[in-house]
Amino acid sequence: ALLEAELRQALEAGQFVLHYQPKVDVRSGRIVGAEALVRWQHPGRGLVEPGRFIPLAEEIGLILALTEQVLQAACSSLRRWADAGRRPLPLSVNLPASSLADRRLPGRLGELMRAHGLAPSSLVLELTETMLMHDVDAAIEVLGELKARGFGLSLDDFGTGYSSLSHLKRLPMSELKIDRAFVTDVAQGGPDAALAVAIITLGKELGLQVVAEGVETPAQSAFLKARGCTLQQGYLFSRPLPREDFERLLDEGC
Ligand code: G
Ligand code: G
Ligand code: MN
Ligand code: NA
After folding, report:
1. How far apart are CA 25 and CA 115, in angstroms?
2. Which residues does the UniProt record annotate as the domain EAL (predicted)?
3. How far, in Å, from the CA of 72 to the mean position of ligand 3?
4. Fewer Cβ neighbours under 10 Å: the N or C end of the chain?
């Protein structure tokens, strides 16, 4: 109950910040995008990880208000980077399961981008397969509208949820993220390597960008690259960083 009251207060006080993890094209070594990950800058506890408050925010009905702040902060950063003359870097944000239930989502996101003078293509919406499978037909309709407006659509944590392949082909995604559960042992050549290769092939055949997440070692990175997965994210390249540190990384020419 204490945490609940604190969470409400935190929304009012603006205690949520975004950290940014680069997405790298390993062929060039350059940063080609970033994922925004929310953290709670708690006055007493320090930086709180999302795993410790997102589920609670969903439970007590605060997730949409929190998501609104995340989207505002993401757009502020995109605006800031454009104003500073940086090359365009699409920013990915994680949407909660409940967000697709709102049919007004595409219109609201369109309005948000307009208000910041941004093209919808500068924002990539990350959705998990589990949230899409809950009501596939409704999801396809909302996703279709988001895609028509130009937003990027990424299927996050792929392979760990309950999507069927017959549904996958109907979802108008632009990107598929290989869950780090498959990446961890990918260089060992066992079943996870087979699954990762199958996911890469599947994604490419469906015309999607394929991104590996949770890449921590050169061996993992090299294996994935050799199999055609050149977009990678993970501690090997960088942890999620506060905005200033992320900007410094960009300034170093990565
Ligand atoms: O950053 P970290 O690895 O601690 O994130 C843990 C989980 O929290 C991940 O599953 C991630 O998708 C989720 N998450 C991070 N930021 C956000 C956010 O802004 N909104 C939502 N809904 N989930 C997020
Ligand atoms: O569910 P989602 O894919 O959005 O979760 C992203 C989470 O993964 C973030 O919390 C981020 O901190 C974490 N993460 C990012 N890179 C790595 C990595 O290389 N290894 C591990 N273990 N976690 C990572
Ligand atoms: Mn994600
Ligand atoms: Na993921």
Report:
1. 31
2. 1-254
3. 18
4. N
Q: Which atom of ligand 1 is nearest to the CA of 156?
A: 12
Q: Can you name the residues that pair with 33 across neighbouring β-strands?
A: 23
The tokens describing 66, both together, are 């929190």
Containing 107, the helix (H) or strand (E) segment is helix 105-115
- ipTM confidence: 0.96
State whether the beta carbon of 37 lies less than 6 angstroms from ligand 1: yes
What local confidence, expressed as pLDDT, does residue 1 receive? 65
Nearest partner of 241 among 47, 29, 45, judged by Cα: 47
Residues, the chain: 254
3-state helix, strand and coil shares in percent for the chain, rounded to the nearest 5: 50, 20, 30
**With a 6 A CB cut-off, is 129 part of the ligand 2 pocket?**
no
Cβ of 224 below 6 Å from ligand 1: no
Contact 175, 152 (CB under 8 A): yes
**Are the CB atoms for 23 and 31 separated by under 8 Å?**
yes
* Residue 67 Cβ < 6 Å to ligand 2: no
Please give the Cα distance from 174 to 152 (Å, whole number): 6
CB 36 within 8 A of CB 91: yes
Whole-number Å distance, alpha carbon 35 to ligand 3 midpoint, is 7
Q: What is the DSSP letter of 161?
A: S
Whether this prediction's pTM lies above 0.80 is answered by yes
Phi, psi of 177 (to 5 degrees): -105, 120
Tell me how far apart the alpha carbons of residues 94 and 77 are, in angstroms, rounded to a whole number: 16
Please give the structure tokens belonging to residue 228. Answer: 């055609």
Report whether residue 159 contacts ligand 2, using a CB cutoff of 6 Å. no
What's the rounded Cα separation, in Å, for the pair 177 and 38?
Answer: 19
